[in-house]
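agent> Task received from the user: take the single chain below, predict its 3D structure, and emit structure tokens. No templates, no multimer pairing.
agent> Plan: (1) validate residues, (2) run structure prediction, (3) serialize to tokens, (4) report one or two observations.
agent> Step 1 OK, no nonstandard residues flagged.
tool_call: predict_structure(input=
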Amino acid sequence: MRAAHELVAERGVGALSLREVARLLRISHQAPYKHFPTRDHLLAELMIRCWRDFALELERVRPRGDARADLKALAARYVAYADRHPHEYRLMFGAPWPDPVMHPRLGEEVARAFRALRGLVRRAAPRGARRPADDDLEAMFVWAAIHGAMAVSSADIMAALGVSKQVVRKCRAHAVLRVAMALAAPARGA
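)
tool_result: status=success, residues=190
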């Protein structure tokens, strides 16, 4: 797993193969097949571990009852994970997924991360301001906003935009603040 992880980090998910992992480990090219029947099984296991770690990071947020503070804490954990694990983050959100029917644990870990996010969003909403049916929609809004801020602020195009580095650094926190403000307002039908 460590060799597969390093391979993806250095050369991207397209370079991942059981044969290449074996070459890096200096073992028989058939040896990895004892543990993973296919490349997709290896990729799924890598992704499962990334999503599990990401879910654990989000689950560490302990609500304090202040919606803005709670959302900032959630966003801080989210951003910290992405900053500390950029290759894993790209793998989680950018790699084509192995067949979910063959790898149900992958979907379970993604759902776990979403439940952590949705739970915090639910607790952060003003009492009586939202119906339980809105929780998924609000959680998707938060996830999209934070992920969007992460993607934009770390994209190679930022240098071409002529935006100051200070603005780029602040955009993540600004997105979180705006999300908190939006969640504090009554939801309108979509």
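agent> Step 4: summary for the user.
The chain has one domain: 52-184.
agent> Done.
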